[in-house]
Each structure stands twice: as C-alpha cells, then as structure tokens.
What we know:
This protein is an alpha/beta fold. Helix 7 (260-266) runs parallel beside helix 13, helix 7 (260-266) runs antiparallel to helix 14 (420-432) and helix 16 (458-473) packs parallel to helix 18 (551-569). It has 18 helices and 24 strands. Strands 3-2-4-1-10-9-11-14 form an 8-stranded antiparallel sheet, covered by helices on one side.
Amino acid sequence: MCSILGLSSDRDVAPIIVDSLKKMEYRGYDSVGVAVKNESEISVKKGVGKVKDVNNDIQMDKMQGHSGIGHTRWATHGGVTVENAHPHLCNSSSIGVVHNGIIENYAELRKDLEKNHNVVFKSSTDTEVIPNLLQVYFEKSHDVKRAVMDTVQRLKGHYAFVALFKNGEMVGVRNHEPLILGIGENDLLLTSDVIGLPENFNSVVYIDNNQFVIIDDHKHKIYDFQGHAAQFAIKKIPKNYQNVTKGEYEYFTAKEIFEQPDTILVAGDEDNDYLQKIVDFIRDSDYVYVTGSGTSYHISVIAKYLFSRFAGKKVEHVMASEMKYSSRYIIPNSTLFAISQSGESADVLEAVSICKKKNAKILSMVNSKNSALARDSVFSIGLNCGPEIGVAATKSFTSQMAILYKIADKLCDGCLAVDFKTVSDAYAKMLSDTSKIQELAKAIKDIQNLFVIGRGIHYPISKEGALKIKEITYVHAEGIAGGELKHGPLALMDSSTYVIVINPDDDSYVDNISSVHEIKSREAKVIGISNKPDPSYDYWIQIPTIREDLYPLIEIIPLQLIAYYLALERKIDPDYPKNLAKSVTVK
C-alpha cells in the first residue's frame, strides 16, 4: 500500500527522499509529498499524481534540511486531493506524519480532538488524527517517547507511521504494517520497503510488531509500546534488492516477464535438507490448507491439483480474505500453507492469525524471507526471483508454481522429475518472438469483454490469465472452467466476444475443442493457446510441445504477454494500473 519514508542525515535529505519514493511508487501513486525540517520550521510540499510529475511541478527535491519524511499514497480515507496527500501536520505545525494503514477509530478521535483540544482538521483522512494526538501528548510531557506511548494507546487498527518533530527527533511506529530501519554510514532511514533504501545502505533492522524507534542526533533507540528497550538484530540486505532499475526495458512489467527464463531456474533454490523438512511437514500433516490472495490464491488452487494428483495428499484451498468466514471448519492441529509474494498481505496475515488460534502450524512461500509472514512461520521457502515492482504478478507466479512442482515431486518420491532447464528453454523460445501476440493486441485493443477458459489444472491458469488482463488493460475478463460454458456463460457469446482457450495437447484437448465449436456457433472469436493448431481458432498462439504435466508452467507466458501488449495498445501504464497497489497491507 502507501510508501512511507523518514531520513536523518548530515546532508540535505529531500533529493534522497524523492529518489526513494520513485523506487517505491508501486506501493501507491495517487499523490506524493515531502516534509523537511529546516532551521525554523517543518516545510511541506505535496501534490496529486506520480512522483516525477509532482516533483517537476513543485520541486520537492530542492527543499533544504537534514531530516525529513516522504510518502506516496494509495487512498483509503478521503479522495485523491492535495489536502488529503501526506505528510500531514498537527495544528501547531510542529509535528509532521506520514502513515500507512488504517486508523479504525479515527472518527471518534477526531471528534474528541475537535471538542476538547480545538483541533481544526484540514483533510478528510484518518491519518491527520496522529500528528494532532502526538501534539496533545507532547505538550503535556515535553518528551517524544512519552508522547508516542500515549498516542499508540489511543489508536486502533493496523498501521505504521513516521513522525517528524520540530525539535529534530524522528519516530517510526509499527503496528502490523511493515516498517524497516535502514542503517547507512552517516544516515538513518525509516521505510516501509527495503527497495526504498539508497545505494549506500546495506544493513537493516526489521522493526517488530508493537515497537517504535526514536532517531535523534543520528542515533536510534528501539522500544516496545510499554516503553521498554527492545532487542533487535541487524541484517544485511539481499543484493538483488539493491539499486532496482528497469534496465533496458520501458516498464518493470516487461522486465519481469522477460526475466522468467532465469528466475524459473532459481525458484525455491533452498538447501535440499531444508526443502525436505517442508515436504516432511506437509506429508506428516493430517490436513493441509493452502491460502493466498489474488495471484497467490490461484497458486493455492494449483497446489490442490498437484498435491492430490501426484502425491495423493488431500488439501483444501481457502481464499485468504474468506478465512474468517471459514474458521469454524478449520480442523485443529492442521497445517496452513500461506502464500504471498510480499509476505505482508493483510488478508494472508489475518488468515495465519486465525489458523494459529486453531493450533495450526504455519508454512509459507514468500519473496522476502524477512517479511512478517516468513517470521510468523515454522518454515518459509523463498521465491528467489528478486523484487517484483509491476503491480501485476508475473515472475513471482511462475516461481511459486515451480516451487509447488518441486514439493509435489518430493511428496511422490520423484514421480515428476521436472527438468526446469527444459521449462526455461520453453520460456526463452516463447519470449524470443512476440510479434504474433503484438499483432493480436492491435487487433483486439477495443474489446470490452474477454473470457479465458481452461479445464482441470488449466482452470486456475485461466483465472490467473483473466486477472492479468483485467488488472492492467481494464478489459472485463473472466476465467471459466470449460465445462461450465453451457451453464450460463454461453448467453454472453456473440460476434463481439473474444474467448481465449487454454488448450495444450493433453487429456483436456478433445473436450476443449468441443467447447470451441460451441463458442464458434455463437459467432464469438476464439484465441487458441496450444502446441497444436486447429482450423477453428481465429488466432493461434503457439506454445512449445512439452511433457504433458508441465503445460501449466508454460501456458501462462502468452497470457502475460497478451495482457502487457494489450495495455500498451490501450495507452495504459502496465506498471501502475489505476486503483491497485502491489502490497495490499490493509484489509
């Protein structure tokens, strides 16, 4: 969700903050702002739009001062306006705050501040109660630590915030939402994401839940919410998370799609003994639930297919956001396999919390081994695919799927024997010439509705393909099980309809061709994704012939490419689709 930053340095911080906000813009890009403490006051500049455009207009990076805070917003409370953009100041302008998350009781706090402290609010956000509460308590105690402790006792919800005080002190507070302290040679930086750290930072402290850090005179102290000094560990930042750039590509989405021949080879590349422990954990569990949100939920459905078909292991997939409504059916002492690219998804973390109350043991699959989800797990396996900036998951999806294949293979004592070099070569072949998909994107750029159908294990791939298309092209797209066409969706088929059929030459091929004929008889257009041509296809997107049980790994690539090139044809930035954020850290 929103990105938050706070930097204390011996040089002007504004240009560094602006550069870091550009890196983290995938977390939120409705509006942006920077506040800097200079000799006499806290100055604020903010505006609506992307970091680059707003900075060009108001030159946030020219502000002077050695401590400051910054923010990119993904709106939750209040419209996308300059007034609602962060940072927010208290009424005395002596404290500025940037915030990620939701203050659930902000309306109650706002009324109290207006009635009892004569606070005049300038925005419609929940955030603005924080600097004003801090002001009330700081004026009482004249102590930053005490003011923070009193403030967090009043706040309800999941949040992280960074506060800049006029006296020069800076505070970072974490309650469920991510917060990281970066340590440079002469700089200290608070951020919601390691990607926001400048190049000269290589060490971090992951602030624990219900902790806060005070930075004063280039020194830091970490406390729990009761004010006790907290223990912490300094860790090194993985090299592939430093200095993230687009390279030769125009968009991160393209870069991440085209990285997949490499990332598929290192997915879950853990110590073999460690992976075996995870496999044994699953094998010894009486019941396994797999959960995730969005793309990661589609992976959980694939897990059910793979584990039941090849390992005879009964598993149940549960959408993370639905776990609270399914909790009464969770079998005590079972295992929850939680899947999340960021490891910070609020819905997934809540599902973990629910299952822990049922004494479930937690396994996880994440792209950040220092994430909240990884730290909350008995075992956690890493995707190892490097940071994924594009909002639409691409390389993380194929890496997640590869790990499932590795686990399933071990569960069935080597029955799959997947050669991922073969898969990598198939990726490279498909990505070497995308001209046919680009031509298709031009031909269908004005469509309003699209259906993607698949059967068996290809059904969750159809759901994932449809998700990619709706996320970054704004075309209504729906993934459908092929056999369900005649139970409703055929009513929507006419000459303006396009249907993508995932149709490799496996045991679903004949049934899918029957579905193609049903679609064609309603005059709809068919886009076939297959290793085998058929005269019924209006467009044929060829995939390499590969071992039958590996087709799910490769058929997603053309779907990603269709979404990407269709976004370009529709003049949409695929990295930053409207209304969406990469890490959904609020419920």
